[in-house]
Amino acid sequence: MNPSLKYSAILSTLIVVFVTYNALLYTSDKAYGTIHLSKKAQQGESLWLLNNCNSCHQLYGLGGYLGPDLTNEYSRTHNEKFLKAIFNSGIKTMPRFNFNESESNALIQFLKEVDQTGYSPNRATKIESNGWVTLKYKSLPNEK
Hints:
Blueprint: H1 3-27, H2 39-50, E1 58-59, E2 62-63, H3 73-77, H4 80-89, H5 101-115, E3 125-127, E4 133-135
Helix pairs in contact: 2-5
């Protein structure tokens, strides 16, 4: 067999395997598990995404760097009126969104439920002798 033909066949096979693997990996929703957000929090998440909040803010350190990480903002402030005021008036470079009461409540519920899932940054880590890092998690309300 011609060496260039042999290498072309191997390369073609690898490309097919790569494309198939990625299609299976990135189109499957099994990795997400059960969605733990309430219906109201899912509405808040939709508002978060529609208003592109993640372009400036982060959840678990992922997102923009202009605004603060909001993963644990609810437990930090415990003040829904304050959060609603920030949503609607904006501060510094944050725009005014003028959310209605229902939308503000949905965003608050989203931030509240995100807050219940963990810490960001997670400083309660332990590095094991085998190199694994153990993180401290918050338990979800529906888990025992």
